[in-house]
Structure formats: C-alpha cells, structure tokens
Amino acid sequence: MANTFHQFVAFGIDIVGLERILRGIQSLLLIFMAWPLSLTHFSSTISIEKATLLTVPFRLLQSRVGLVRRVLRTFRFIDSFNGGVVLFQNQSPGQGIEVWLDVISKTTLGMWGLLETITMLDAFEVPGLEYFGAAKTAEYNRQAQIYWFVALVASALSSLVKIGKVAQSTDSTEEAKDTAAAKKKPGKGRKSINEKGKDKAADVTGSQRSAKIRQLSIKFVSDCLDMVIPASGVGWINLDRGLVASAMLVTTFITGKDVWDRCGKELDAKAS
Prior knowledge:
The chain is mainly α. The chain has helices at 4-13, 15-39, 48-72, 76-90, 97-118, 120-124, 134-183, 193-233, 241-271. It is globular. Its main location: membrane. Keywords: Membrane, Peroxisome, Peroxisome biogenesis. InterPro entries: PEX11.
C-alpha cells in the first residue's frame, strides 16, 4: 500500500492530478465568490456594491487558476481525437450503440479542447498578441462549451447503456445458477471440488460485475453534474453560481479519485 504522502506527491506531479487540484481550488474560489453575494439576501447591512468588492480578489485569482488549467490541457484534444479514432477503427459488428456514443463523446471533447487551444493567446489578454479578438474569442468559447455539453451527454448515455448490459448479464447468470440448482439430484448435499470452484468463480465474477456497475454509475452521476457547468455557461439554464461551483467541486473529487488510485497503483508497482 502506497504511503499517503508519497501518493500525494505523485498525484501532484502528474499533469492530470495537478489539473484536478487546480480545478478543486478554482471551484472553491467560485463558491467563495458566490457566498458574499448571497449575504445581501439575508442581511440589509451588506450592500451589493460591498459584496461585489469582496469578490474581486477571488474573481481575479480564479481566472488565473482557470488559465493555468487551460494551459495544462493544451494538447489533450489530440488524445481525445485519437481515442475516438481508435474506437471507430476497432469497432466490431457485434458492438452496440455505446461504442458510437463513446466515439461522439471523444470527438466532441476533442473539439472542445481544440477551440480552447486555438484561443489560448487571446485568453492571456496580452495587448498585441490577440489573434481572434474579444468578440470572436467569446463565440469560440461558447461553442467549446456546447461541444463539452454534447460530450458529457454522450458519455452519460453510454454509461447507462453499459450499466443495462452488465445488469442484464448478471440476471442471466443468476437464472443459470438457479436452473443448475433445480436440476441437481436429491441426496447429493455435498458439492464436489469442481462445483465449489465454479461457485467461487461465479462469486468473483459477480463481485466484478457489481464493481463495474458501481464504477459506471459514479461516472454517470459525475457526467450529469458536470453538465450544469457548460449549460449554465451558455445560458441554457439559470442556476445560482454557488450551486454550479459546488457541482464542479463534487465532480473534481469523483474524477480525481481515479487519478489518485492510479498513482497509488504505480507506486505499488515500483515498490514490488
């Protein structure tokens, strides 16, 4: 088992782990920004102007943190496009709609990253270095949020389809076990070694299916929560900024745990 400190160091120097840490910080800053504004609803002594002034440092800091995260994601769109191409090329006739949903998710996620990357210079807001200009950059960023939303929807639907298929295979296995038990001859209460081995293998397979369903369910919930970020960003839904930031914080922990576990496994592999 990897030491927590060493695992945190490995998590921090991993580019995906570092991006998750910064995402968590940014979501906390967004929550802090929303909190002073909400005080105006409960206290008449705090004006909107005063509450807005309290959020200025947080607003600037979260903007800088978001820009650093954007830099860390610069070339991730290439990996997303490549993942979509690999899924498309390796699909077989027997595979279902979830493969196409994954292809759509990877491709649109790549488009989101591509639009973020090509507007990087404009995001720095350095005079003389802007390429597209403020208006066109804002439009590209809006389109990027739409692509991200589509990617999340496709990913969530794919998880639902996969959960259904895993659950269906579980039901089929249980029915087969019940049928085998019903056909068993009376008087043979003790199982052979071969039968015990089969039962043990079935239990392991069942636990693996349960773990798979749990993993897919968590991913589905994470994708659904993340949807509120681009949907709110493009104006499709009107949610309190604190709620959007809270959803962002929750999904940061959910997605960050996968990276955390991976770093721990890599440390264990090096130690063995």
